[in-house]
Amino acid sequence: MHAFDYATPESVADAVVMLSDHGKNACVLAGGTDLIVQLRENRRRTDLVVDVKKIAELNALSYDAATGLTIGAAVPCYRIYGDAEIAAAYPGLMDAARLVGGTGIQGRASLGGNLCNASPAGDTIPPMIVLSGEAEIAGPNGTRKVAVEDFCTAPGRTVLEDGEFLVSLHFPAPLANSGAFYRRFIPRNEMDIAVVGVGASVVLSGDRSSFVSARIAVGAVAPTPLFVREAGEALAGQPVSDETIRRAADLARDAARPISDMRGTAEYRKHLTSVLTRRVVEGAVQRAKE
Amino acid sequence: MSQNGHKVIGTRPIRHDGVDKVTGRAIYGADIQLTGLLHGTVKRSPHPHARIKNIDTSRAEAHPGVRAVVTAHDLPQIADKLADLGEAIVNLRDASNNVLAYGKVLYKGHAVAGVAAINLHVAQEAVELIDVEYEVLPHVTGVLEAMEDGAPILHEDMKTTSMGEETDKVSNIANHFQHKMGEPDDGFAEADVVIEREFTTQTVHQGYIETHNATALWNEEGQLTIWTSTQGAFSVRDQMAEILQMPVSKVKIVPLEIGGGFGGKISVYLDPVAALLSKKTGHPVKMTMTRDEVFEGTGPTPGSYLKVKMGATSDGRLTAATAYMAYEAGAYPGSPVGAGAGCIFTPYDIPNVQIDGYDVCVNKPKTNAYRAPGATNAAYATETVVDEISEKLGVDPLEFRVKNGAKEGTRRADGPVHPRIGCIETTEAALNSEHYRSSLAKSANGKVRGRGVASGYWFNFNGGRSAISVSINPDGTINMLEGSTDIGGSRASIAMQLAETIGLEATDIKPYVVDTDSIGYTDVTGGSRTTFGTGYAAHATGQALIREMKERASKLWDVPADAIDFEDGVFSYRDDAEKRGSFKEMASQAGDAGGPVVAQVSTNPDGSGGGAFATHVVDVEVDRETGKVDILRYTAVQDAGTAIHPSYVEGQMQGGVVQGIGWGLNEEYIYNDDGSMTNASFLDYRMPTTLDLPMIETIIVEVPNESHPYGVRGVGEVPIVPPPAALANAIYDATGVRLRDLPMSPPRVQKALAENGG
Ligand SMILES: Cc1cc2nc3c(=O)[nH]c(=O)nc-3n(C[C@H](O)[C@H](O)[C@H](O)COP(=O)(O)OP(=O)(O)OC[C@H]3O[C@@H](n4cnc5c(N)ncnc54)[C@H](O)[C@@H]3O)c2cc1C
Fold it and tell me: Chain B interface residues facing chain A, Cβ-Cβ under 8 Å?
């Protein structure tokens, strides 16, 4: 491991200055559950680690039934699912927050870190996409907002420019008759990276017989977590039935362009995308009805 | 009092080493801190097969903080020489080359140099500054490809030995042997059902939690001391003396607590490198492996190809069996194919058998022992074929096994005739178990369920050498020194046998595993020998103590020693009821009659280690859409001879089952086309976690081993043998599709079901 400096700015502005000064030779530390492993294994090299956990905005966690949910980029998973009101309002997000690593990891790991790490298999990203999450970014030119589905650009790469970092994530308030669900497939029952992960959110009609709208996102089947807009749109206005759900599942499978690696062949991943999408949409419908 | 009139044997006292282990006080290799300690690490080959053209260590040596660099040129060059290391016969030249590559690297991860520095970070930086010039050679990692003519050759001077004779043929096949009994062709002609199938298994690792470590101090007198985690301190001493070409008297090994071995902590890896670095620097040097080094640079158990053919008559009698077994040795000869051949048909009484075994070098780490080495691969094939035959004949698979079961007098194809064994008793216990008698409820969630059974055999090595040294304290407690490292509760099981013999409680004995200068030669803790062999020595030690105490009583009471009896823990003089005392009472006075009471015993029993048989029953649920297999219930039945400490017998059974489940369902070394392992971490080398397993139920059968005073049979290894086959049979029962390739991981199962309409 290469020796590096460590800084703990207490304001967004200070952090921007430090990051701008060092450019590519600095990196942001939230929970460190990705970063520390990468540094120790020499998969990444840096001169400066900027720990953002002392900045107030990055620890914010607030929910309002009218305006929605704001999660500071460094808030660890346990705080999110530990808030009963938030957990009840966003069960689809909790599916993911509760399965990142284990209890120990969830004490540190943040959604912001999961997103900025930009792994195609990051578990919290598909549910953030289907919940229409928005990322607030600070940088030398002020702040900007980017939809979560547009945030990752390649494995390990994001829209963040030199000097920029993620401040918070925002989610609109859940609508009536809506439900969301996330599930991943792994060969064991814990401690694994998703072979495929699927998130879905649905809004049902008042009598719950048809879909008003739906969003579907798939992880680990493309260079970035994949928002499959057409699969969700295929459900809009359609009756809630095995047939319509299967059609959406087929569209998700067709959109997947996975690679073969030690975690599964491309063929297997495409097959799983269809199986999981069906199960996850069914799960989201079930929640919308509850 | 437990059964058979025993007072201590069969009870479940708290283990002597338990408190220190659960409170973190026990000393493991990574805990060692010495004055002036340097930290070492290893430079490893990035190529699976390459000629080393040059190693330039000058940049590393010049790096600030680096104290020494060593390569194979610092090792004495060893002529071919065979040494018996217990579980495996190892060619010492190969062992030396495996420690630090000389001439060629034969697998990715092969050690090429060692560095000692003031701290680990500096050592790691220095490793990057060692310049190795390679000529990369074509590689081969699969056993069948390696056997083909024209395959890349690992050892240009290695000629195949066939049926005991060296041939002229240079190939990767180190050895081909054959066991033959009766006339298989005639046997198959008699059969009404004949099944022949092919199977493959992948390389798997023991996966012990504690990684390899060694701290060496080579002092100014040329005395070498090594603190290490090992299954056999004396085996390490022998290997060090041979590899470094020094007298055994100059080597002392201090075995520390061991965080798992399962056969993988017998061969040395770091120890000679740390020793050379200490010799060069005059400082103690500590080395500890990372997990990826353990996967890539130590000894897993082999991948294999097997073809098994078995025939039976319509009335359910096995008439013939043949097996073709090709096992990967890894970089150097010495796969466990021989052991696998000794086990493959052993649970059965089959008149006509032929077994052909092939030991094949491939560009993977040199394989090593792993819990019943070779037997699990073999049982996967046999037990699946037996299941298919039972089904064809329409008989219960366990009844078929009982009917054809091996018993006292049955001959194994490789020669030996069984003494009293518990094969049939074990199978009957499985047949009568509540689990097997219960019916399997249907799944409510669209998944499918099934039940499978399988049996297995492991030799259990006979005894071997063990030494015990005891001294009696005035309060009647006993300090017991032993040379057997404790990897599975053997301190307790050996102390209990001594306590039983002399009428004390297990807690009255304080067992210590000591260094090689403090006790007589003791063979490795392996081959399921320790509770048998060192327990045998403990019994003999008890007998010696009783004789000595009679001598002391004779002096104290002034009566002839041969008129003193010892019964139920009490010494008494036949002719005077007043003259009597328990072991403890006598111990408090014995010192006055001739100084402290001590005894030293060493044994090497001739009898049989007993032979261990197991039969397992498993219920699974299969998700047909994803191919994932969940285990609903698992029962392991095993003959333990006599269970000294039943909790530790159960623990061994459960641990073996869990490793077998991992091997069956998910574990494998996955290789890239470039010959490198892609999953050298516990993230992607998928051992089962607690969430993947139900509580493993156990049924202990006790058919005493006649060669041991308390009837002990080894228990540690056979429980890993049946699980992959039992799972395959259960998956078949659930889906109607047979899986003959390990691991039966979700992608494989899903593909097999999709292709076969399961
Ligand atoms: C044992 C273990 C199990 C795991 N299991 C899972 C799992 O099941 N599913 C899963 O998806 N992941 C898993 N992970 C990975 C990791 O825990 C998650 O990705 C986690 O969400 C990362 O969050 P963090 O706060 O620890 O990020 P960090 O490690 O602090 O940062 C991650 C990356 O994002 C960057 N970064 C962090 N915050 C910001 C910011 N505000 N602005 C810009 N860049 C930033 C960092 O520089 C780094 O590149 C596991 C990790 C471990 C060690």
Answer: 121, 124, 625-626, 628, 665-666, 670, 678-679, 682-684, 686, 688-689, 691-692, 745-747, 750-751, 754
